[in-house]
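Sharing a chain and its predicted structure for anyone who wants a worked example. Both blocks are below, sequence first, tokens second.
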Amino acid sequence: MVVALGILAITDLVVGVSNDAVNFLNSAIGSKAISFRTIMIVASVGIAFGAMSSSGMMEVARKGIFNPGEFVFEEIMFIFMAVMITDILLLDFFNTLGMPTSTTVSIVFELLGASVAISLIKIADTQGGFSDLATYINTDKAAEIIFGILLSVFIAFTIGALVQFVSRALISFKFQNKSKWVESIFGGLAITAIVYFILVKGLKSAALFDGAISEFVATQPLAFLAGNFAFWTILSFIVASFLRWNIYRIVIGFGTFALAMAFAGNDLVNFIGVPIAALQSYQDWQASGITATEFNMRGLASAVQTPTMLLLLSGAVMVITLWFSSKAKGVVKTSVDLARQDEGDERFQPNYLSRQIVKFSIVAFENVSKIVPPSLQSKLDKQFVLPQTYVPKSKTQELPAFDLVRASVNLMVASVLISIATSMKLPLSTTYVTFMVAMGTSLADRAWGAESAVYRVAGVLNVIGGWFFTALSAFTAAAIIAYLLFIGKFVSLVIMLMLAAVILLRNYISHNKKTKEIKAEDSLRRAESSSIQGVIEESATNIANVVKRSNRIYSNCIRGLSKHDLDFLKKNKKQSNKLSSEIDGLRNDTFYFIKNLDEAHVGASNFYINVMDLLTDMSQSLEYIGKVSYNHVNNNHKKLKYNQIKELKEIDNYLEKIFNSTEKAFVDRSFEQIGDVLQSKNEINEMVSQKINRQVSRTRTEESSPKNTTLYFSLLLESRDLITSMMELLELYYAEHDSSVKPATIPKK
């Protein structure tokens, strides 16, 4: 168990850092204040400092949730093992989804669930009652932690929104044009907050400072803050005026370092606290000479310094993970996209609750606006106007998700809230605080406009729902695993470890597969060209990919129906839905495409819109064919008859030739071949019409299945629509390409 816990500790560090990286990378990456490489170096140094200062922070794993004196060594090991297995699987699950969650909440509820399960077993053995649970569990401490974490969500969102609103109202989006003293005062406030955060939260357990300094910070906080504010404001003014340094960038870099350090210093307990406690318990038990079922773990309640070497190794694993984890980038992307100032790809779909919240907010805002004097309202609106240069011409432009002011406020407010909670000894989740502050500042910055509000609110609700799921699933899963370990001992341990390894491997393969699909060669690409020739060239690539995928989807559908293979049809249906989704994404970019066009080539917009319309018609036909085929087999209806399958395969074979010729024409840019494909238009349409007439005759004489008839007619009619859309696309492209090359090919007299 000790060896297994050591391996699990390394794995937990990897999955934990992948999720918690959003806490300190979000603002720097979203604002693009400094290069990505510099951000990673700053964060890595912060993690290294934090890991070395984390000794003494492991107490929550030892005695924070349960009373160790009430358990024997064997029971403690079951609790610790259940916690680690659950934690790794839970965090990896969230990482695979790209969703931020709290490692603090997960570890607290896992300890609570596992210790409650073992406690109930002990109570049942002694014929005790449920009220005896308080003997084993620190119910007051657990309730305090849970309440503090939930309260931090509301407070962080509210304070973040309020501070950002005031900051934006005073500074506006044109912060570069403000006087140096405005930048200096903001820098003085932000750096003071971050310094206080470092001393109170980041290095509170480290003996890096003289005792007098720590005592002064603790006993005279106002004097310390006032002195710091004056010093940093003056220094910021000198640096901004004479060295021409951007204070906002300095704040963001410094804040990233501070949050990374605090994360490593305090959240390290969430990853290695349990294995270290298990190792020290093992050493105590081994020295005692008492059996594992009799050795009382009273000594676990005493504070023990964590070996420095273990802290250094943990820090190294965290830094390596930070640099190489693709899942960490996915979690950060979710947070950044929800806070984006401009309209971006919306990952989350609106739901009933998000729509109602947005409707209520609009009504509330309109009512408040009636109270505010029009002159004041006008002045405020001017402060929130985005500069014209901030509106991107293309989604491919690498613009920041938000500006330096918002990024600085995110770090400053998060630092202040975490510092205050720490100084008051209130428990909270750094993930919840940093995420909700970022969401609050987004709302105040009017990033959630009419175009994106329902999507962003739905995203926040999904993340918050995931947090409740974290708590519930962590408690339940840890309790079940602890019970199984208690019952099955070594056999259960081996099965659990093997099962955990299989799940982790499966998630890894699934994540890699998804990443490769996103980067696949036949994925559709957004138009970036600003001329008609460039649009024709780029559209040709997309059309070739759509035709290639359409060919595969249609053939697989006929093959799945012929074999009555539900799993095959289900996978094919997903492929058709994916193609439709990608084409919808291209249509949503029409605004950026038109803005990106040169004045001389504005006419290309009409061509592009028509191409997108016809590609959409093709994808909708394929989506419908995939859906009705899957539903027919899923509902256990009769198989299509031999003649029906044979006729469908005839259409499929003919279509395959057309698809292949079309794909080759667009891949080779040999647009003369399109004319050859168009000549087969009447022939394929005539073939489909003949199949329809035959089915009409069969229905009147021999067909006995209404469901088969409905499915067959649906397939034929949608096949005809698919062919019509593709032929219209080819005609459009052929005509446009022909007209675009004619002027250049007319010989001079």
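Comments welcome. Confidence is low (pLDDT under 50) at residues 741-749.
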